[in-house]
Design a protein that fits this description.
The protein is an alpha+beta fold. It has one domain: 3-Layer(aba) Sandwich (Rossmann fold). Helices cover about 35% and strands about 30% of the residues. The chain has three helices and six strands; from the N terminus they run E-E-H-E-E-E-E-H-H. Strands 1, 2, 3, 4, 5 and 6 form a six-stranded mixed sheet that branches. Strand 3 and strand 4 form a beta hairpin. Helix 1 packs across helix 2 and helix 2 packs across helix 3. The chain is elongated and about 50 Å long. The mean pLDDT is about 90.
Amino acid sequence: MQYILAYADASRREAYAESRWVAPPARLLENFLARHLFSGKSETPSVGCRLRVELDEFVQAYDATEHSRALLEARVMLLPPHGDVILLRRSFRQSPPAGANAHSGVLAFSEASRKLGADIESWLNQTADATPALVERCRAG
């Protein structure tokens, strides 16, 4: 798990000595989003198209000695079933508060992941409502 002491040197990353993620953050986020967005519980209207999520930031940032926030930034692209033409793209940022240790950072990253999934789902639903032709393009393959 990485953190930065933004109040001292925002460009320097550190790692908690005794705390590790069970997998790389990008893989954890990918698994979470796959379960959330494509579990059958969610009605994402872009069925047929592919989502590409690029994780730009995943770090616990300390604004003060005892106060931190989880910083999760990602770029999301909607791609057709075949090919790499980007149909839509959007950047997302979540930054929920966290405490002053690795455990609180993990909880904040869980919250940030849930919010990111909800934001992506909302974006896809709004896009489908605004551009039905795009939905048809995804479904037609």
